Amino acid sequence: QVFLVESGGGSVQAGGSLRLSCAASGATSTINRVAWFRQVAGKEREGVAAIYIHIVDRLYSDSVKGRFTISQDSAKTNFYLEMNGLKPEDSATYFCAAATRGHSWRTLTEYQYWGQGTQVTVSS
């Protein structure tokens, strides 16, 4: 079992920055991939970024590429999403998710573990 706890959400003005953190505990050695998803009420949860933690391969959605950066610490138990140039359309609840297997980073069902989410609000 892996436990994930997000932090770092908040309210910022357009153009501002936030750094989200995801602390993993439990059977962290089983994690192969960590991703950040976001969801707006009434819409599907969408993948924002992912990192294959052992080869440090980073993947991004087109909507955030060049503005967001996903990273991890050396222990591979803390994961981050640096968000720059925030736009009002980035407002959502952001979730950290961990997968032990699979290769389709945007597929929700590949992630066995999820955090509780952290709210990001960007005002214009």
Provide an overview of this structure:
The mean pLDDT is about 95. With about 120 residues, this protein is mainly beta. The chain starts with a strand and ends with a strand. Helices cover about 0% and strands about 50% of the residues.
Structure summary:
With 124 residues, this protein is an all-beta fold.
What labels would you give this structure?
seven-stranded mixed sheet, mainly beta, 124 residues
SSE diagram, text form:
Blueprint (H helix, E strand, L loop, with lengths): L1 E6 L2 E4 L4 E9 L6 E7 L6 E7 L4 E4 L7 E5 L5 E6 L8 E8 L13 E2 L3 E6 L1
Parallel strand pairs: 2-11
Antiparallel strand pairs: 1-3, 3-8, 4-5, 4-9, 5-6, 7-8, 9-10, 9-11
Q: Which percent range describes the beta-strand content?
A: over 45%
The biggest sheet amounts to: 7 strands, mixed
- Rg, Cα atoms, Å: 13 Å
> Which outline best applies?
globular
* Helix count from the secondary structure assignment: 0
State the total count of DSSP E strands: 11
Order of helices and strands: EEEEEEEEEEE
What's the pLDDT, averaged over the residues? 97
Q: Helix coverage percent of residues?
A: under 10%
- Our measurement of the CA-to-CA distance between the termini, rounded to an integer number of angstroms, reads 40 Å
Regions with little confidence, pLDDT below 50 for 5+ residues: none
Category by helix and strand content: mainly beta
